[in-house]
Each structure stands twice: as structure tokens, then as C-alpha cells.
Design goal:
about 35% helix, alpha/beta, 10 strands, Rossmann fold
Length: about 200
């Protein structure tokens, strides 16, 4: 089994839920039939291994200094990717973008060992509208970073990637909602397929 196929199975088992009726409330307040919470996967040791290597694969063609995104969803992904990059001999730095600026010390949006002008990829765990990814892109640029790609672990396929492309044209998703739903449908626990 490939790392990607294994990650899809783990996400399906630990991070994805489906309901025939829209019972899951999204950040936007809208109701959905799909629930995706990547943290049980991205904080799991095997999940970290898979995510780190797959996200590294999604950025290895670029000359980057770092990877990161809005705390907290992007943090375990960035750390796993940085760790995998060191193991693979092509080290990338992880960074985290705050939701609110510090009000003490050096006032910055970003925590990490980066300098203005560094080339980075913005990461996110889930894209629905793309709002948190776009916020991360804007804050990274406000700190002088050159954002060259965005990588989302799970694309909910609700327009998020298209919205992100208005801010950074090069956007990738590691896994799609359709792939998770297909895995969910094949699971013996869910004998009746969703409508």
C-alpha cells in the first residue's frame, strides 16, 4: 500500500464522518453532511510520518526555506514535514502563524526561524472556503515571506482551492473529500451507501 492510500484509510477511520442529513456545523455556521477533523490523524505517530512525507513530496520540487500555516491546524503538518525533510536530507524549517498578534516582546505574526524574503509554502489541514489558508498567506506576506505554493491536506471540494488560487496560483491538495467518501463507503461499518 502506498503512503497516500494508507493516509486516506487513516483519515477515513480517524478524521472523517458522513451523515445523510447535514448535521455538522462548519466554522462558517453552514451545516454539512461531511465532517473532517484532521488532528486525530496529524497528531498520531503513523499519521505524522505519512503526512510529513506526503507534504514533503508536494513541495520537494521547490527551493523553499520553510513550511507552515495558521495555528493550530497547520502546526502538526509543518512539524511533521520539517522532520521528514531532515530525514530525507533536504531540511525545511517549520513555522507557525498566530491567530492574534503578540502584544509583548517583538510583535510578529509568525513564530519560527525565518527571514523576510524566504520562500515558503503555506500549509493547512482542511480547505472548505479557504479562509484560514488565505489569512495565513496574507500574514506570511505581511512579514515579508515569499509564498510560492499552498498545500492543503484535505480539500472538501467546496470552492476553497479556487479561492486560495486568487492569492497564490499554485495550490495542491493531498487528499479530496471524494476520496474519503469512497473509502468510507467501502468500509464494512457503512454497508448502506450514502445518497
Amino acid at each position: 500500500m502506498t503512503h497516500r492510500a494508507e493516509l486516506i484509510r487513516m483519515l477515513c477511520r480517524k478524521s472523517f464522518q458522513y451523515s445523510a442529513e447535514p448535521v455538522f456545523r462548519l466554522v462558517s455556521g453552514r451545516m454539512s453532511r461531511f465532517y473532517v477533523n484532521c488532528k486525530p490523524t496529524t497528531l498520531h505517530p503513523r499519521g505524522m510520518f505519512l503526512v510529513g512525507h506526503l507534504v514533503l513530496e508536494a513541495v520537494k520540487d521547490l527551493e523553499l526555506t520553510g513550511v507552515g500555516g495558521l495555528t493550530f491546524g497547520a502546526d502538526p503538518i509543518a512539524v511533521a514535514t520539517a522532520f521528514a525533510s531532515q530525514l530525507c536530507g533536504s531540511p525545511l524549517k517549520a513555522f507557525s502563524i498566530r491567530k492574534a498578534q503578540k502584544d509583548h516582546g517583538i510583535v510578529r505574526w509568525i513564530e519560527g526561524d525565518l527571514q523576510a524574503g524566504d520562500r515558503v509554502a503555506i500549509l493547512d489541514d482542511v480547505a472548505t472556503t479557504g479562509g484560514s489558508t488565505i489569512k495565513a498567506i496574507e500574514r506570511a506576506r505581511a512579514e515579508g515571506l515569499a509564498v510560492v505554493r499552498a498545500v492543503v491536506l484535505v480539500d472538501r471540494q467546496e470552492g476553497g482551492l479556487e479561492n486560495i488560487r486568487r492569492h497564490v496560483p499554485d495550490v495542491r491538495a493531498v487528499v479530496t473529500r471524494d476520496e474519503l467518501l469512497e473509502c468510507w463507503q467501502r468500509s464494512p461499518d457503512h454497508a448502506s451507501p450514502p445518497t
